[in-house]
Amino acid sequence: MSHKKVAILISGGGSNMVSLLESMTGDHPARPCLVLSNNADAGGLKKAAAAGVATAVVDHRPFKGDREAFEAELVKPILEAGADIVCLAGFMRVLTAGFVSQFQGRMLNIHPSLLPKYKGLHTHARALEAGDKEHGCTVHEVTPALDDGPVLGQARVPILPGDTPEDLAQRVLVKEHLLYPAVLRRYAAGDRTPVLID
């Protein structure tokens, strides 16, 4: 069987990346071809290398806020690796429409809220401030609009009395590590039916 090649973009420790890498074995329809970071100190790079996956770094800082120039370099290792699917896993740079359009329909992101609620940052604090009874995470197809695009899966957690944003973040992260691999498996097989985890 021919496997889809997956490039994973990270900025930090790469816990979601690890859950994706660990899932892509056996009869999984995809295999990792690259882990790419904008941060040479990202802990996830060592983890990927230890797992035998090719790594690359394109530091955004020398580009002084010129996002198009940064992305022109960022896309090169992805294309060289022949990636069929791009997974954003804690990649902390907002991508332009020009970059996203190159991978339209082939790029996934995981976001720590039940989209369309709480796009952007500080999702856990915002859910608590709103008095929500539940929170969670979403995997969606990436479109030029931030944290938008078709929802491919969601996992929910209850909000408990006395929860802090940190408590909530920890419980949501456990679900992220289940949801993202489940969505990728389905997506790589050509199935866009949303995955729902409670």
Automatic annotation (TrEMBL):
Cite the Formyl transferase N-terminal domain residue spans from the record: 4-184
Per the record, the domain of life is: Bacteria
Q: Which residues bind N(1)-(5-phospho-beta-D-ribosyl)glycinamide?
A: 14-16
Stored InterPro entries = Formyl_transf_N, Formyl_transf_N_sf, GART
Please tell me where (6R)-10-formyltetrahydrofolate binds in this chain: 67, 109
Task: Tell me one GO biological process term.
Answer: 'de novo' IMP biosynthetic process
Described function: Catalyzes the transfer of a formyl group from 10-formyltetrahydrofolate to 5-phospho-ribosyl-glycinamide (GAR), producing 5-phospho-ribosyl-N-formylglycinamide (FGAR) and tetrahydrofolate.
Homology family: Belongs to the GART family.
Q: Which residues form the active site?
A: 111 (proton donor)
Q: Which reaction does it catalyse?
A: N(1)-(5-phospho-beta-D-ribosyl)glycinamide + (6R)-10-formyltetrahydrofolate = N(2)-formyl-N(1)-(5-phospho-beta-D-ribosyl)glycinamide + (6S)-5,6,7,8-tetrahydrofolate + H(+)
Q: Write out the GO cellular component annotations.
A: cytosol
Q: Look up the record and name the pathway of this protein.
A: Purine metabolism; IMP biosynthesis via de novo pathway; N(2)-formyl-N(1)-(5-phospho-D-ribosyl)glycinamide from N(1)-(5-phospho-D-ribosyl)glycinamide (10-formyl THF route): step 1/1
> Under which name does UniProt file this protein?
Phosphoribosylglycinamide formyltransferase
